[in-house]
Structures are given as C-alpha cells and as structure tokens.
C-alpha cells in the first residue's frame, strides 16, 4: 500500500463511525466544486451514512454539490436485501436533498454483469469528462473502502482476473461470491484525492496487520495511489 497510510484510532465501532462522518462533513464543506464520493457497502459504512442522514450532520452538508458513486455492487435488483444501493438508500439517500442526477448507482438492471460494468464505466467517464484518467485530476475526492477477512477491498478478491485489469475503470467478477459483482478497478479506485479504509472488530486484526505490513498478496495492500490513504480503525482491529 502506498503512500504510507494515516491511521486514526477509534475506541469502538460507534466512535469510528462518528469520526468518519465528521471527517466527511469537513471534507465536503471545504470543497469549492462538486464533491465526488465513492461509497462502500458494509455495516460500519452504514453507520456513517445513518449519521450523515440525520441531524445534526445532515444540515451541515451542502448536498447540492455532492455526487455519489459506489465502489462495488452485487448484481442483484436495486431493492434486493444484499444491494449496497438499497442499504445506502435506506440509511442516507431517503433523508437528504439529493437530485437523481447526483446519484450514480451501478446499473444492475442491465442484461448481464458485463453490460453493467460497461455502462457504469461510461457513466464514470461522462462525469469525469474524459476516457483517460489524468494523474493530476482525481476522479473522486474521497473513496471509502472496507477490508474483507481475505484481504479483498471493493470487490477485488484474491486470485481473480480483476486484480490485473489496468485499462477498464469498472469490471465484473463471477465466482468469487454467490452473486456476480461489479467493481471499480485499481485505476479508478486509485484516482482519488483521499482513500479511507474503515476497519472495525477483532476479527479484522490479523488481516489489517498484514495490510499495514504491505503484504502484496492481499488485494487491499496493492493500491498504488498518489492521493492520501487513511485507515480509520477501532482499537479491537489494531490492538496487538
């Protein structure tokens, strides 16, 4: 993982969510242009979204300048119980003033995972205004990521072809999980001014230690970005 991450230590999962939510509010407030935020699935991000969608934080954000994307999604209907979009919608989108054009969901209503990935890439490129990523102009202002027990992040799982994809911005993954997945690739994830990993719980302690030790066999440790990397972790995930 490069550059060396900045580590923020929380007391527990609740404290972690509060820290991340406050950090995001400050980042959005300081942005003078549309703020592109790539979201993650998972229980800890859900707590963050719930905080952002409720008072007092909800009223501290100028939602008119926020553009929302997703780092990965299961190829399931939008209202499926395993949909990251549904989780985000229930936790955040229903509670804030966002126009439909500001919500760039992965099109899982496409005919196939491959088509969904292609359509999502097209949407990303339309937003960015180019088909080639400029190292000096990040696609995202902030990218939120989780860390799986096997070291995966977004839907970049160990031993999948997606790890070697360097041309596409979005790809599909079949076989790593019961449902097909659509995921941003390394080039798209790395094109972010700041990346924040959210890691909570003692069960993540071993894998987080390996990521921090730059174990390149783990997908999460292979991010090579010019932006800043933050790791928001609670003491259970960091304690020796």
Automatic annotation (TrEMBL):
Its EC number is 3.1.1.31. Keywords: Hydrolase. InterPro entries: 6-phosphogluconolactonase_DevB, 6PGL, Glc/Gal-6P_isomerase, NagB/RpiA_transferase-like. It is an enzyme of class 3 (hydrolase). GO terms for biological process: carbohydrate metabolic process; pentose-phosphate shunt. It comes from the Bacteria. Residues 12-224 form the Glucosamine/galactosamine-6-phosphate isomerase domain. Pathway: Carbohydrate degradation; pentose phosphate pathway; D-ribulose 5-phosphate from D-glucose 6-phosphate (oxidative stage): step 2/3. Signal peptide: none annotated. Pfam families: Glucosamine_iso. GO terms for molecular function: 6-phosphogluconolactonase activity. It catalyses: 6-phospho-D-glucono-1,5-lactone + H2O = 6-phospho-D-gluconate + H(+). Hydrolysis of 6-phosphogluconolactone to 6-phosphogluconate. NCBIfam families: pgl. Belongs to the glucosamine/galactosamine-6-phosphate isomerase family. 6-phosphogluconolactonase subfamily. This is 6-phosphogluconolactonase. The lineage of its organism: Bacteria, Pseudomonadati, Pseudomonadota, Alphaproteobacteria, Hyphomicrobiales.
């Amino acid at each position: 993982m490069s550059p060396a991450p900045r580590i923020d230590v929380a007391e527990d999962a609740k404290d972690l969510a509060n820290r991340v939510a406050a950090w995001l509010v400050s980042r959005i407030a300081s942005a003078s242009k549309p703020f592109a935020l790539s979201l993650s699935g998972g229980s800890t991000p859900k707590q963050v979204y719930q905080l952002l969608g409720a008072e007092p934080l909800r009223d501290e954000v100028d939602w008119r300048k926020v553009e929302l994307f997703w780092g990965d999604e299961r190829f399931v209907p939008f209202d499926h119980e395993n949909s990251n979009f549904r989780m985000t919608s229930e936790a955040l989108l229903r509670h804030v003033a966002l126009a439909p054009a500001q919500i760039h969901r992965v099109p899982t209503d496409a005919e196939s995972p491959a088509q969904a990935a292609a359509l999502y890439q097209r949407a990303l490129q339309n937003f960015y205004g180019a088909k080639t990523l400029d190292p000096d102009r990040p696609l995202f202002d902030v990218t939120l990521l989780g860390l799986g027990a096997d070291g995966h992040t977004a839907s970049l799982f160990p031993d999948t072809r997606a790890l070697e994809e360097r041309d596409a911005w979005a790809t599909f993954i079949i076989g790593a999980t019961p449902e097909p997945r659509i995921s941003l690739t390394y080039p798209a994830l790395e094109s972010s001014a700041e990346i924040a990993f959210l890691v909570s719980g003692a069960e993540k302690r071993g894998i987080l230690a390996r990521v921090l030790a730059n174990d390149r066999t783990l997908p999460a440790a292979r991010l090579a970005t010019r932006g800043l990397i933050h790791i928001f972790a609670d003491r259970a995930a960091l304690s020796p």
